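Running this now, will post back.
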Amino acid sequence: MKNTSWQSRSALNGLCYALVALGVLPVGASFAASPVLPGATLVLPAALAVGADNKDPNFDPDYLYLQAISQESARYRTGDGSNFRKAIKLYDEALKRRKNFYDAIYHKAVCNYYLKDYDNSIGDATKHIELRPEIMQAYVIRAQSYVKKQDYDPALADLNEVEKKRPDLMEYRLRGQIYYARDGYPKAAEDFETYIASKTDSKGRIDLDAIVAFLDLGNTYGKIGDNDKAVDAYSRYITAYPELTTPWFQRGDPEYDDLPLALNKRGSAYLDIARVAKDPDSPRLEEAAGDFQKLTELQPASPTGYIGLGNVALFRSEWDEAVKSLDKAVALAPQNDSALSALAEARRLQAGEKIGSAPTLAGAAPSATQIAGVASLQQSIREQDDALKINPNNALALRGRALSNANPAIGNYAGAIADFTQLLTVLPAGDPGIAEAYFNRGSAYVNSATPDYAKAVTDFDAAIAANPANSAAYTARGDAYAKLGQYDQAIADYNRVIADTAVDEKVKLAAQRNRGVSYIAMTPPRVKEAIADFEAYLQVYGDDQGVKDSLFAAQLQLGAEDQLIALNRRIGDEPTVADNYLKRAAVYDKLKQTDNAITDYIKVTELDPTNAVAYQNLAADYALKGYSDPAIVEGGIAANTKLIALRPTDPTYLLARGDLYVGQNKYIEAAKDYEAALALIPATDAKRADVQYQIANLYLGAKDNARAKQEFDAYFVAAQASHPKYEEALILRGDLLRDAKDYPGAIADYSKFLVNKPTDVKVLKVRGQAYLDSKDETNALADFEAAIAGAPNDAQALTLASNIYYNQGVVIAQTDPDKASVLFRKAAASTRQAITSDPAFAGAYFYKGVALADNVKVDNITPVEQKAQREEALAALEKFVELAPTSALVPDAQKTIAELKKKLGA
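Update: finished.
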């Protein structure tokens, strides 16, 4: 429907200006959010006194109504809804004086709706309808309240009535939401499209408060399965999304104002398009990654964007990137079993690539790559375990753990079989994973220490029944038949694979090789046919030098090798053309032949010193090699230095060079690069706070505490309290201030930190020490006791508290022995607990000893008890001297030890 709120808005604004002239309202008041119903009477200020129901204008219902309307306006809106409650009271006062004041009744319904009191909103709307059934706005607000209560039948009836009588007021989006909730997606899409059209002008511009309908539309097309239309809808939302400075009342309901949701939805739709097409090179994946990356920037504390990036990397077979992204997701949401299982799956695939890239020769010790791959595989299993503890029916976790256990490097085939068995009970009928689960369980039976080929054949039968096009199942079943000596059945399966035009040539060749083995094993053997199969296999692989060079080169096979052959020929013909070396370097990068790639990139920079792409890829390859070699670090610095000169407005390379300086412990140089990068980052970019935080830490690392404190000050100017490093920065600056003996400043920073984490034991202790340093024992003790409440066995907090108890006892021992004894006993009890928690914590023994020694002097106890306390005190002080012989407190301890020995000797 067309938004008619501007009509009511202009009328109310005219009234508002008149009231301002009379001094009733402040300048700038707006009633944009509170439309007047068609048919309602606007009372002009000059007519207020004439139309009053009471001589006192403060009790005139029209005046009360206008006061209430002002409370609904955007100017008076409050986060707790108190403005709406005030408005309701004013409407009630007006209704006491004019019983059938239907405008007030309608606006009460609106206020109750905003207060989420949907029952009262429905009741008020119903009263209005009884008084004025021809006014449709009350039907709309009632329908909205019904929808919030998920009571869709009366909501739908109200909306249909509005559409029939006042289509210009029809809330098509609301009805679309009802259809959506009832799985009526085509009807929902139609209503959302109608709503959007009604909110779009002749130039194609949509009202800002209506863009949320694009989210509804995208979700609906997603349910229908039309990902292209879903992407279009989400894109229209993102394109129309207003600047953050746009006021809320112009942007729509903040409950639905969700740019991160739109990015996540569009990114997921892009990913689904690539998945449906089974195209890991689809350009849609770049768009998906862009959306998920933007989502991580908007919501750095949410796992959603990182999960999306991980899924994109998984689909692209970029295991390292998948692990990196999903690891961040799990760090943010450790109880999310989906993120855990996805991380473990990425790690499993990453481990498989490591293990496969460096096979261990028979009798040789495993390589470092093999060992790392196995460790990653074991970690993957642990992560799947964690996911399954959260959700025992997590299909991805069951599959991943089973495949990890079935990897020969782990060899836990019994565990794999158990997981595949459970997985088959979890997967719904018709799921394509069923065929895979049967196939993999059959393979586990084959690879077990005691193979069970008969069970394997049964599983391969089931896999083929579930997916008759599964050529791998035919090959595996053929191998199992061969192990059982059923060669005719084995050959029949191999023949089917070889004759299948859709099967990859390598698979066919492997089937030919295995068929040859079966021909030889038969009685009598079919030698000629076996020779023919072996010759066909060797004809392809025997002359392929790329396969012999390395396993990885074999995986790339003819494609990459053919490219290298062509480029080598071209470079021989054109040895001074930089672009030829640049292209060959890119092929080497694909082959992970990093040293060869680096050599070629260096050659490009010699031939074309301004080739930024070459420097950029050179820097990336240095990073891939790792920075353990100083020469590589210097190479990386040189490449980034050149990039800084070539692209002076891009902060990326300054930050990269700064990182390399950090690796060399050149903190000042790194800080300068970060500062230069900061000058290039836009003022509105959230990344500024990250960089400023790093600058402060670099000066901290350089032991320039004054400059570090200055940079932390700048960080707090740039960062919002929601920044992930904000609380850590408070602690670091607090420590700097405390070291500089600025105890009030340190206490202020620690206190800001404790606002959100009031039970943080570490910060309570350091703030307590700051109080203690500033001679404020009262607040210090309060912090130490709060720390003890949070960590009853924290030896340091217990000892710090006992120090204060002891000092207080010493001060009042002469004037109030009984009170001093209570404090000495409290100090002793606290240190006993500290020693129980940490028997090596020296300070606890000191304060235990002196507290017990001084307590004997003031406490009214028996000689036996005195002796026991002195012995306990002596043992504690001697232990202190043993643990901390260089402490400044040792002379005090030895003095007290001498006194105690004298007393005990007497």
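The first helix runs from residue 5 to 21. More later if anyone needs it.
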